[in-house]
Design goal:
Length: 176
Amino acid sequence: VQELADEIEVGIQGGLSGRPLLSVPHLVSDEASCYYQGYTLAEMSVHQTRKYFKSKYGYIVDNPEVGPTLANAYWKCGNSLPFLQIVEDLTGKELCGKAWVDSLKKDLDVHLADEKKEYDEIIEKCATEKEDGNIDLQMTVKFVDGDEVIADSSKSGLLGACKEFECFVAARTASA
């Protein structure tokens, strides 16, 4: 088993390292374990929050209620409230892993079909909306590659800047 692991590590990163490729750093350095706990709690809260919004509104993407709700419930208080309290205040439930575990238990084909259905619904919804070509986010968006400013929404509008960036990416990938 060790020989196979070494062979895979050499194949992936070109040589053996001081710590095996697939090891978890906090096993070597216990002060890092708090980061993993934080990531786990964050992932749990993401799934619980998504479930809350989907239950309440039916959808999340392009939902005008989601941004202000998140701003008021999660971001406005900053660090003045404990993390577990803000999740419970928004969702009405103590933080738990149920929503995350439920998503992991979902059959892949069912999951893909559900995601495709949601995607098609939002595409259909967007197709019926009238667009005037002017999106004002009350901010400037710049697409930058190193020192090169590719596009600037203050000069060409947001959609114009997005189109310029799209052309930049297409040209770069075509030449690669």
